[in-house]
Write a structure and sequence with these properties.
Elements: H1 15-25, H2 27-34, H3 39-44, E1 50-56, H4 63-79, E2 83-84, E3 87-95, H5 100-112, E4 117-120, H6 124-137, E5 141-143, E6 157-159, H7 165-178, E7 185-190, H8 193-206, E8 217-219, H9 231-238, E9 244-248, H10 251-263, E10 270-273, H11 281-285, H12 292-300, E11 302-306, H13 315-328, H14 334-353, H15 359-366, E12 380-381, E13 387-399, E14 402-414
Parallel strand pairs: 1-3, 1-4, 4-5, 5-6, 7-8, 7-9, 9-10, 10-11
Antiparallel strand pairs: 2-3, 11-13, 12-13, 13-14
Protein name: Amino acid/amide ABC transporter substrate-binding protein, HAAT family
Family: Belongs to the leucine-binding protein family.
Organism: Micromonospora marina
Length: 415
């Protein structure tokens, strides 16, 4: 996957570029991928202008995910002539930072801008920290990444991603069927609620008539890990001769963990939520056809669970993935897809809410949109305002000359 820096912004697409993109994709396919609407309204932009607030990190360890989220939402706008439901849209971006305080500051600034809705949010800490501010403001937030299991009882917060227990739960059922009951699974993750949620999901599905005999190992949550950060904990775990490794890392942490796992002599399968090999991580693990790490990955396997893969064969994904590749010269990730879907469901809700919707009317309409024809496959919001959706098993394989995440089969429908 190409680096996110230097990509052409969809915000810079002019009207002619948008029309060229529509022509290249085909209007019939676009309608199937994005839902139906009033063509004349789309062309003329007869609705009143609206503002949408986008909360993403512009720096730090989560910047790459924030860029993907921005790309996904902007792609939807570019394909619709910078409109949502016939309304010209101004996308106002605010820095989420890494704490509850910085997240609340972003929300406060966007509310002063008079936004109709909010979207984005990468960090679970930020999402938890802004909960009360969003609920009190009564402005809907379509979160496109962060979704901690502790976020309960919300009215104005909807999420187009997943609950963090779900990737572990999807893999837990798969591993319970695949592995012998006596198998030892070494579990790793960063300190914090994210890895705790993922491992809790694994336990929930795996421990049906059996037990996970090993205690999880939580490592330092360093966004720029050294080449030895994980070596000690890995060495200690390998002394017990595990049959498999389950881990929850992403980005630079994922790359260093896998490299150090192999360097310490592990020769067995790796299972993880799809974040382990999503985005640029797999590119950084691919050391070429004659490389040692590629041979180890091919010999022993990395399998991941995720709600999306760029190679899914459905009409909505063919349209989305093709447009994303043409615009950004890279394959889309689950982060970009969830943000694209946030724009899609907002489009549906505003249509239902009427010509001059208020934030409260849009929020009410979000509960009525029904099934969403998404690049991930059809899904719908459940009672907790998160998607009821399919989870896929992906295996790292050679696709052409590069290592790629290839969908093997469906794992479960959760939510």
């Amino acid at each position: 996957m190409a680096t996110l820096s230097g990509r052409k912004s969809v915000a810079q697409m002019n009207r002619r570029r948008a029309l060229q993109l529509l022509a290249a994709l085909g209007t019939t396919g676009l309608a199937a991928g994005c839902g139906s609407g009033d063509d004349s309204e789309e062309q003329t932009g007869s609705g009143s202008p609206i503002k949408v607030g986008l909360i993403v990190p512009g720096s730090g360890a989560n910047k790459a995910v924030g860029d993907e989220i921005t790309n996904g939402f902007q792609l939807f706008l570019g394909m619709r002539g910078q409109q949502i439901a016939g309304h010209p849209v101004t996308l106002v971006t605010a820095e989420e930072g890494e704490t509850a305080a910085t997240g609340k500051a972003a929300v406060d600034r966007l509310l002063k801008e008079g936004v109709l809705a909010l979207t984005g949010v990468v960090s679970p800490t930020v999402m938890t920290g802004i909960k009360n501010a969003v609920e009190e403001a009564r402005v809907p937030l379509l979160g496109s990444n962060a979704s901690p299991s502790t976020l309960q009882g919300v009215v104005y917060i909807w999420r187009t991603s997943y609950v963090l227990t779900e990737p572990g739960e999807a893999l837990g059922e798969y591993l319970r069927q695949k592995l012998d009951a006596s198998s030892r699974i070494a579990m790793f993750g960063t300190r914090g609620p994210g890895s705790q949620d993922v491992i809790e999901g694994l336990r929930r599905a795996y421990e049906r008539g059996r037990r996970l005999t090993e205690d999880p190992i939580f490592t330092e949550d360093d966004p720029n890990p050294s080449r030895t950060l994980y070596s000690g904990p890995i060495r200690k775990a390998l002394e017990r001769e595990p049959d498999a490794v389950f881990c929850h890392y992403s980005g630079a942490q994922a790359v260093q963990f896998v490299k150090q796992l192999y360097a310490q002599g592990y020769r067995g399968p790796i299972y993880a939520p799809g974040f382990l090999t999503e985005g640029t991580a797999l590119d950084q693990l691919d050391d070429g056809e004659k490389g040692r790490e590629r041979k180890l990955i091919q010999s022993y396997g990395i399998e991941t669970a995720l709600n999306y893969s760029a190679d899914l064969n459905n009409t909505a994904n063919r349209i989305f993935a093709s447009a994303y590749r043409k615009t950004f010269n890279s394959a889309p990730t689950t982060y970009a897809m969830a943000s694209y879907d946030a724009a899609l469901v907002l489009d549906k809700a505003i249509r239902l809410a009427g010509a001059n919707p208020s934030p409260q009317q849009v929020n009410l309409a979000l509960g009525k949109i029904g099934q969403v024809d998404s690049p991930r496959g059809t899904w719908q919001f459940n009672q907790t305002r998160t998607p009821q959706q399919k989870w896929y098993l992906r295996r790292v394989q050679t696709d052409g000359r590069l290592l790629s995440n290839v969908v093997i089969n469906e794992l479960a429908t959760l939510g």
